[in-house]
Amino acid sequence: MSWDLSITAQTLTFLVSFNALQCAQLVLEGEAPELRGMHANPNCINKYGYFPLHQAAERFSVDMIKLLLRHGASANVRTVGKEIIEDLLPLHVAVENTCLHKYLEDNLSPSQNHLDYIYNLIRLLCLPEMKIFLDTTRLLAEKTNNLLGELWKYIEDGKLTQSAVLLLAAQEQIRGGCSSSSKKDGFDMIKSNILRLSFTLIWGKGSNEMPQKLLEEMKALYCAGLLVDVISRVGEPLSAYIQAHSEVPHVEVLEHVSSILKEYGFCPTGDSMDTLNLQPYDCKKSDRESCGTGLQMQTEQLRKRPICMLQRKRLRERK
């Protein structure tokens, strides 16, 4: 009697969800004698409608993502099904979950002055705790098709935080136009799109358009334009600083990032950033001490959030 055995998508998803790197490598390679030639398919969708790379992206596991990509996983697979938000790339999962970070949720408000909002957003993304999220996004962006198109969707929808995460993490791909054959700078292309959309809003609206709504749309575009301008000019030194300073007190990071911005002609203020709000959970240590336990809890909580968290969050936004 013979058995028709296979390594299911659910099995691989389970291994990825627990970040079991060695086990995942074994089933992907299929070389262990016990597997009898079977190996897992990295592009097999599970019953919930997402792929192993979506799960790895949600856990912000750079090593697992590299492993899956090395064994042929596609970064261009999209979620599908009734139990999940459809049409999400692994890149979307990483970006959206990054935006759920406590630091961003606690320290950014739409009521802030637009300049303070943009500068505070950039400074927050340069904090050491954000490095793993930017690294994950960068890795997925390198393998994602039509990256500029995905970025433009965020900008067009007025999603500044998501736009900032993608701009800062994937600036190298954006500068290259996201194509080896393209000589255009993606930042210039995005700036042109913003300018074109601004003219459309000003001249293309009918007489029934509410002035207040138009002002809000123009403000959002202005903020997006400023964000793109800042990252296009200061993104490289900011990225170099993030990579070289993985364990630096918050106050020092905020001061240094502000000095980099000023060096390139931008004028951020320090009045709107309260470092007391940069304490994860109930961490009581001073800003110049390591809050390693609290930071680990924050990262682990985000890593363990199921993809349906994004669904619930978006449903709330639609109400």
TrEMBL record:
<dbReference type="InterPro" id="IPR051573">
    <property type="entry name" value="Ankyrin-SOCS_box_domain"/>
</dbReference>
<comment type="similarity">
    <text>Belongs to the ankyrin SOCS box (ASB) family.</text>
</comment>
<keyword id="KW-0732">Signal</keyword>
<dbReference type="GO" id="GO:0045732">
    <property type="term" value="P:positive regulation of protein catabolic process"/>
</dbReference>
<dbReference type="InterPro" id="IPR036770">
    <property type="entry name" value="Ankyrin_rpt-contain_sf"/>
</dbReference>
<feature type="signal peptide">
    <location>
        <begin position="1"/>
        <end position="23"/>
    </location>
</feature>
<dbReference type="GO" id="GO:0016567">
    <property type="term" value="P:protein ubiquitination"/>
</dbReference>
<feature type="repeat" description="ANK">
    <location>
        <begin position="48"/>
        <end position="80"/>
    </location>
</feature>
<protein>
    <submittedName>
        <fullName>Uncharacterized protein</fullName>
    </submittedName>
</protein>
<keyword id="KW-0677">Repeat</keyword>
<keyword id="KW-0040">ANK repeat</keyword>
<dbReference type="Pfam" id="PF13857">
    <property type="entry name" value="Ank_5"/>
</dbReference>
<dbReference type="InterPro" id="IPR002110">
    <property type="entry name" value="Ankyrin_rpt"/>
</dbReference>
